[in-house]
Amino acid sequence: MMIYLRLLQFSRQYGKYAVPYFIFILLHSIFNIATFTMIIPILSTLFDPQSMTETVTVLPEFRLSAEYFTEFINYQLFRIYGTDYNIMEILVALSLIVVGSAFLSNLFRYLAQRTMERLRITTTQNLRNAFFSSVMRMHAGFFSNERKGDLISKLTSDVQVVQFCVSNTLQVAFREPFLIITYVIALVAISVKLTLFTIVVLPVIAVVIGVIVKNLRKSAKSAQESLSDMVSTAEEAFGGVKILKGYNATPYITQRFTDQNSRYARILRSMANRQQMASPMSEFLGISAVSIILIYGGGMVLGGEINGAEFIAYLGIFSQITRPVRSFMDSFSTIHQGIAAGERVLGLIDARSEITDPEDAVCLTEFRESIEFRNVTFSYENREVLKNVSFRIGKGETVALVGPSGGGKSTISDLIPRFYDPQEGAVLIDGIDIRQYNLESLRAHMGIVSQDTVLFNDTIENNIKLGKRDATHEQVVEAARVANADSFISECEQGYRTNTGDRGMKLSGGQRQRLSIARAVLKNPDILILDEATSALDTESEKLVQDALNKLLEGRTSLVIAHRLSTIHNADKIIVVNQGQIIETGTHQQLMELEGVYKRLIDMQQIGTTEEHA
Fold it and tell me: What is the pLDDT, as a whole number, of residue 374?
């Protein structure tokens, strides 16, 4: 129940919709029951004309009984026709009342459903926004442990299930009780004794349906988890289709998806069996109850305790009361599925990033002096990646990190923008621990160009403007020129308005990398982080990108991670990292003279280059 109430909180304007919905449903219920109670005067007119031709000249005093209703109708007929009217005139008048009552009943039902639909859409919108915002606030390590397909499944499928659950149960909670209450009032007005007997029969339906839907919540949770697995597999397959085809692994991934889809289908069939059983079973029990009441009420008619018209009207109303009771019971079969999905969605909304601003966060307005790593130790879960790392980057300096793969170079670069926080030690900017800075102000001074260029399915211009949304077109063009990208952009059919495709796949690796550099040029950051920005490029593309990087590095404080060591000869300082520790530090010349790990790496690359050209 607490989860359901939490989900309702996402209807922030709940009162705006609840009040009119309440009024519309109340009016719908009143006119709905009026339509069915008109059975009594109509049947009385046909089979007992004398009862409907008795003139009532004074408005009868209200009392909860069928006699009062008949007298009230006769009084209204007297006001319309006077004392001189015949049976056909009565039938016409009663039929018009039925038509008008049915029209108003359905009109208010439509208005109620329209209002509920607005509430449903608002709830879904707010829930999706909250989910997406919560996920985007999470630290970088969160995305290493979560599958994108699972997140997408929660954002789409789970939220959709929650939406249906909330709107359906709210609708049932408001509408059905009103209908049940008005139907019960009408039944009591016809016969208190028969209604008391009926009330004993109805709980049997609730008990049977409750047994049927008891285990639906567990199955619903399994279904959502199974769907997440299936979506994750599909997302991975679509993203890695070239690898799958290249290794002839398409049958493997297809079979994996098929197995997951089969499991999902089995769970859905099991749930559907229980859900679909609820409605037929309740209908069967309702008909059985009507049969029992028919026997009991028939005896009352024969005994003169109730007349035939009232009993037929009673049966008609009772047949209607089983419908809202059935809907009320059916809603419990869907609410379990909604709550299961809601648990998954709220679990992520409630999650908190490990990287947050302190309460007294300092705003980094200007980078003045240096970046310093002071005795930094960092681990991914139980695997130690950095151990007691210390070094300094002065303002305007270019510091390069080199070393074998897996040594911790990328981790060092990730600590500066606070994608992660060290377990021990600190990273300081201008002498202040970066954990004391406001995150947004800290990252506003940084630009990142990585090996894995991230472009979005948008225009070239919008991709370049990612870090500076208010940039003019002229500024975008100038940034592209600095990045050696303007020439190929101009050759595109739509120029800067050309769409880059999914993950920029319409462009070559070198073109994507130059757009990434143009993005950094446009942002004009004080601190620049280059993570193997040229390692995956061919020789021609590497030269263009390297020329662009050289322009970008001018006058900036830079941390460069280099795979191809020929690109960092001019760095102010080169730091060799191996197995999470700094083992050598110096300029290119100093490290070559040291004849250590750095020189060995240089020699290996030179041998590789010689063999490549041989």
Answer: 94
Tokens (6 digits) for 101: 């009552």
Gyration radius from the chain CA atoms:
37
If you search the block for the tokens 């009016």, which residue do you land on? 27
d(CA 117, CA 100): 26
The alpha carbon torsion through 276, 282, 287, 289 (nearest 10 deg) reads: 170
Q: β-strands 557-561, 398-402: how paired?
A: parallel
Task: Give the whole-angstrom CA distance, residue 532 versus residue 525.
Answer: 18
Which residue, among 571, 524, 536, has the nearest Cα to 550 in the 3D structure? 571
List C-alpha distances in Å: 476 to 215, 463, 467, 470.
59, 10, 11, 10
Instruction: In whole angstroms, give the CA distance from residue 332 to residue 434.
Output: 51
Q: How far apart are CA 181 and CA 178, in angstroms?
A: 5
Q: Which of 324, 346, 110, 123 minimizes the C-alpha distance to 224?
A: 346
Q: What is the pLDDT of residue 61?
A: 74
Sheet of 370-380, strand order: 383-394, 370-380, 424-429, 432-433
Q: How far apart are CA 69 and CA 53, in angstroms?
A: 14
Q: What are the distances in angstroms from CA 479 to CA 400, 449, 521, 534, 550?
A: 24, 14, 6, 19, 14
Phi, psi of 544 (to 5 degrees): -65, -45
Cα angle value 112/116/117 (rounded, 5°): 115
The Cα-based distances of 462 to 425, 497, 508, 520, 521 in angstroms read 39, 8, 18, 13, 14
Instruction: Please tell me the predicted confidence (pLDDT) of residue 29.
Output: 81
Amino acid letter at 344? R
Greatest CA separation found in the chain?
A: 125
Beta-carbon contacts of 271 under 8 Å, excluding residues fewer than 6 positions away, are 216, 219, 220, 223, 337
| Measured distance CA(74)–CA(80) in Å, rounded | 10
Strands (DSSP E) along 442-488, which ranges? 446-450
For 74, 429, 431, 578, the CA distances from 394, given in Å and listed in that order, are 99, 10, 12, 23
d(Cα 151, Cα 131) in Å, to the nearest integer?
10
Tell the residue number behind the tokens 């080199």, with chain if given. Answer: 402
In the 8-state DSSP scheme, what is residue 303?
T
Q: pTM, whole model, 2 decimals? A: 0.66
The pLDDT of residue 372 is: 94
Positions of the chain with pLDDT lower than 50, given as ranges: 608-614
What pairing do the DSSP bridges indicate for beta strands 527-531 and 446-450?
parallel
Give the chain's end-to-end CA distance (angstroms, integer).
73
The pair of structure tokens assigned to 51 is 């009862």
Residue 614: its pLDDT value, please?
A: 42
> What's CA 84's distance to the chain center, in Å?
67
